[in-house]
Amino acid sequence: MVGGLLVDHDILRLRPEAQARGLARARAAGHALDSSGQPTVPYFTVDDPAIVEWRALTVSLLDLVAQGVRSALNLSADQLPLAKVLEGGTWKAGRRIAAERRPDTCGPPIAIESDGTVF
Fold it and tell me: What is the C-alpha to C-alpha distance for residues 30 and 115, in angstroms, rounded to an integer?
């Protein structure tokens, strides 16, 4: 949910052409539609360039997020390792904002077709 948290807070955004492609794919797949008949989130395959970019940017930003949290709490990396930042902060925050923004699904802002072998 960290990547979703970054999208939900407009830190990361899909490129317009990727957004359009993902929404068209969501529509064709019959994903959830809003009241105007538009898909609520774009839908991609796991190997789509938009997903590869999103994941790469998310990973690169995680260290900055962790640094900011540690700084705010005056803790070292040993005292607050990245795993704790993820589990106790970004994951929970991502779930919370997903529930607020997408109460029908509580899902991420970008849907990925996956068999679970890539995460």
Answer: 18
Tally of structural domains, the chain: 1
Give 5-16 pLDDT, tens digit per residue. 899 999 999 999
Whether the CB-CB separation of 12 and 3 falls below 8 Å is answered with yes
| Whether the Cβ atoms of residue 65 and residue 71 lie closer than 8 Å to each other | no
Tokens (6 digits) for 99: 């529930």
Predicted TM-score of the model (pTM): 0.81
CA–CA separation, 39 vs 55, rounded Å? Answer: 22
Within a domain: 119: no
Count of other CB atoms within 10 angstroms of residue 18 = 19
Task: Kindly state whether residue 65 falls inside one of the protein's structural domains.
Answer: yes
Q: Could you tell me the residue range of the domain that residue 77 belongs to?
A: 2-113
Angle at 118 between CA 117 and CA 119, to 5 degrees: 120
pLDDT value for 53: 95
